[in-house]
User: Which sequence fits this backbone?
């Protein structure tokens, strides 16, 4: 999910934006209640060092964001396997399917995408609309 947002319309604060994306990931993973944030690191992790479930990568120019959030739902959905988390020595990627046995296969990817859209609307207090077949365009509520 790579939202293009004008942060002054929400909150012009990059740390807030990163934490909001992490919160979005935690809401997408409700079947995984022990998914956690780790102090000093960006992203969402499986408990007990089980790997990184969601990565946040933010770029911003003139307060307009690019890049965003990646949630590892299933290794099947990631050709070539899960990417190793950047900048965290010895860390591994993990998927919700691998850690908790949820969301394996293509049908479940639709469920995950629907939850991501709902979570985005909740966290950012905005409404999403389909744009040219599904990418999504966003506006404040």
Assistant:
């Amino acid at each position: 999910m790579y939202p293009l947002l004008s942060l002054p319309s929400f909150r012009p604060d990059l740390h807030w934006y990163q934490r909001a994306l992490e919160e979005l990931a935690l809401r997408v993973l409700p079947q995984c209640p022990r998914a956690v944030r780790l102090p000093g690191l960006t992203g969402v992790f499986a408990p007990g060092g089980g790997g990184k479930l969601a990565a946040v990568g933010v770029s911003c120019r003139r307060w307009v964001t690019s890049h965003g959030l990646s949630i590892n739902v299933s290794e099947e959905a990631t050709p070539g396997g899960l990417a190793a988390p950047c900048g965290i020595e010895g860390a591994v990627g993990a998927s919700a399917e691998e850690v908790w046995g949820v969301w394996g296969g293509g049908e479940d990817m639709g469920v995950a995408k629907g939850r991501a859209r709902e979570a985005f609307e909740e966290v950012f207090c905005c409404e999403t609309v389909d744009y040219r077949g599904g990418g999504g365009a966003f506006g404040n509520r």
